[in-house]
Give the backbone structure.
Amino acid sequence: MARCTLCGREGLVSEAIGVCADCLRRRPEEALRVVRERRRRFRQALGLPEEPPRGPGAPCKICVNECIIPEGGRGYCGVWVNRSGRLEPLPGHGKLLAYTYLDPHPTNCTAGYVCPANTSRGYPKYTFTPGVEKGYYNLAVFLLGCPLDCHFCQNPEHKLHLAGDTWKSYVKTVEQLVEEAMNPRVTCICYFGGDPTPHLPVLIAASRRILEEAKKRRQWPKRICWETDGLASPPLLREAAKLSLVSGGIVKIDWKAWTPAIYEALTGANGEKALRRLRENTAMLAKMASERPEPPLLVISVLLVPGYVDAEEVRGIASYVAKLMEEHGVNIPMVLLAFHPDFRMRDLPPTSRRHALEAYRAAREAGVKEVFIGNVWLLGDYY
């Protein structure tokens, strides 16, 4: 752990960020100057854009970064490139950068606490058996690329693949993905990563074909699920969520923080813009969720990063979620995830048990009805 370069505070301060949460809340402009310089040097070393490019070039509207990608350049996600004035994914049109594997039920995904495969929620329409779908699988689809640059990324290898040329080993066509999903033992298809957002146009088309084929082959259910930062353009996320809505799947949005400066310090994205987009997209999905009470369409997750994502941050997110629940008459569960030191934040400890319980109480007091603590095996008396 490091010392805050602004106030001198010792303790739960990561060297990758260089400032404490209090300074990010009280002195955001000054604190973010420190953070931005540290992130810039790291991105530069990887050969990825140091910040979302602003052209001149071709505009990308897939996510909140709204990159304007110069000729021969890449977007902040590392996936979209400008080739001769036209934007296309790094591997070419209609192709993905992904690897897949079969994850047996009961799945350990973020929404496992309410997933039909684990809990029978939505039975008999969205799961064909009461209890756990034993002997069946989730097709886990890990996508390379992300609109964010989280210092605590649990899967940072995807950045290294994009920075070099090993991404070529992960090219997958829509046809390949559809055929893998047609395994009769697959009942869920879950897109995560990285983040599915940069690949959404291709994934939406592929998922439509998956559901069409599933009906033809009488392989139902085939639930379409997304685990995402929630920063996609609203029209794209709406189309993705429609596929989850009709198939019994779940959209899992990971809110990184409530304070804009803390959000940016952790992720690299403009915190003000990101939080506006998150509120907009979460409200949109909450409204859609009223069309299907069970299983819940929307689940919110929050990673409890020591020193940064505390009960105050959780309370802010939970208060907004509770407001949407009341407004639309829906249930939106929250999952509070214990932190594991990784990537550039290995100097912090795992989440303490006390931290998790304080965050849990904050979410419940704010009005969220279902709150779960995930990764409980990581919890300890660390601070």
